[in-house]
Amino acid sequence: MNYKYFLILGFLLINIPQAFSNSYGNDTVDYPSLYDIVAKSNEVVFHISEPIKLIKKNYNKEIVTKGNIRISTQTDTLHFSAKLEPGGKNRREICNIPPIKIDVKKEELITHSLNKHCDKVKLVFQCMVNKSKSESIKQEKFVYDLHALVTDYSRRASLVKVHIADKEKFYDALLLEDNKDMDVRLNLKRIKTSVISPDVINRPEYVKMCLFQFMIANSDWSAILGHNTELYKRDADDMLIIVPYDFDYAGIINNDYAVPSEKLPIEHVTQRYFMDKKLSLAELEEGVKYFIAIEKDIYQLAADADYLSEGSRKRMTQFIEDFYSIIKNEKKRAQLLK
């Protein structure tokens, strides 16, 4: 262990108690969250009262946009007052409709017998409205489902329809589970820190994440810097877990706007690059064994993804097959760490 390890560990020991000082209380296990209600319904429509132009304009002026959302499910309609703001730093700049963060009133959640602590959700839309990428938001949904198959420590994502005040049509969107929902569901607590060493986290889970990112050809992340990853503490044993999110730069989706970092030796996001060369060969081998064990389950998940077109399922399955052809080859596998 080096000085850097002890420095980071000391930082965590000092800051973890403060980060966890706000307990969610006993009522977290008694009521479902807003996301839970949506996830169990097959047909869900979000109606957002404020124009997207106003939400973006207010955000640029550092003004909170107040509005209302109406959520229609197969069995009920829920009304909430909410704060609305655009999300996604990159998507906010380039997408026709950026992600929308929704913060509903806790008092209204209580009225609907929902968990008052899980008061936030995020809607992510199709970035570019064009025929060639008409399914990319659904493909991103598949990636979240794929991650949920690989590990228990994953963020849930549900497909919904959304109507926004200044738009005529209904849009496909991903409803993403918030951090607090994950905390309650998985008995975790998020640690807010900008820098972390992979040496102090759960290694088997970290290796799973590295191989998962390699499988989908996503190089737009950093566990050390917390870029598109978040750190959680597991209640059962205080183990630290890294959970990734935002997969729109993954090669398996291949969005038009996605480009790899200039610091990497690849020219296109569809080219795979293994991001952590410091993994031991023994760790990599154990991770590969795990992925080989779930290979059939992964192909079955793709076959069952009826929200995707046949063309998308075939292309994404082939992309995954290419991943397996690499990790099953001893020479190619060894090259990942070089």
Alpha-carbon distance between the termini? 23 Å
- The shape is globular
How many whole angstroms does the radius of gyration measure? 20 Å
Biggest sheet layout = 7 strands, mixed, barrel
Query: Beta fraction of the residues?
Result: 15-25%
Write a structural description.
- This protein is α+β, with helices and mostly antiparallel strands and 338 residues long.
- The protein has helices spanning 3-19, 34-39, 52-60, 89-94, 106-111, 136-150, 179-186, 203-215, 281-293, 295-304, 310-327, 330-335; strands at 45-48, 65-72, 77-86, 100-104, 120-125, 157-164, 171-176, 188-191, 229-234, 240-244.
- The strands form two sheets. Strands 1-2-3-4-5-7-6 form a seven-stranded mixed β-barrel. A three-stranded antiparallel sheet has the order 8-9-10.
- Strand 9 and strand 10 form a beta hairpin.
- Helix 6 (136-150) packs antiparallel against helix 10 and helix 10 (295-304) runs antiparallel to helix 11 (310-327).
- Residues 3-23 have low confidence and may be disordered.
Topology diagram in text:
Elements: H1 3-19, H2 34-39, E1 45-48, H3 52-60, E2 65-72, E3 77-86, H4 89-94, E4 100-104, H5 106-111, E5 120-125, H6 136-150, E6 157-164, E7 171-176, H7 179-186, E8 188-191, H8 203-215, E9 229-234, E10 240-244, H9 281-293, H10 295-304, H11 310-327, H12 330-335
Parallel strand pairs: 1-6
Antiparallel strand pairs: 1-2, 2-3, 3-4, 4-5, 5-7, 6-7, 8-9, 9-10
Helix pairs in contact: 6-10, 8-9, 10-11
